[in-house]
Design a protein that fits this description.
about 100 residues, mainly alpha, 4 helices, about 75% helix
């Protein structure tokens, strides 16, 4: 191969392939960590992202709920936990999970 063939090969590799792969991996990690997706819903999303990487990733990013409870900051989670404990103490019940 000539120099320019190598140049364009690496250019497209780093411009397209690496970012798309990083996006795909981050979506798969997000999909696995989401506690609000369970069972068949999680399996169907994983299957869609694996079988149709670009289309599945795009659909997942569009359908993914933004700002949901599982994306709360540590401070918001602590406040919510404290409120749950206060409610359980006032009601005399067990702290729900």
């Amino acid at each position: 191969m000539r120099f320019w063939d190598w140049f364009w090969l690496f250019f497209w590799l780093f411009l397209i392939v690496v970012p798309v792969t990083a996006l795909w991996v981050s979506i798969m990690i997000d999909l696995v960590k989401r506690p609000d997706l369970v069972g068949w819903r999680k399996a169907l999303w994983a299957l869609a992202v694996i079988c149709f990487p670009l289309l599945g990733a795009l659909a997942y990013l569009i359908a993914r709920p933004a700002g949901s409870a599982w994306e709360m900051s540590a401070q918001e989670r602590r406040r919510a936990d404290e409120q749950r404990v206060r409610n359980a103490i006032e009601g005399g019940g067990v702290v729900p999970n």
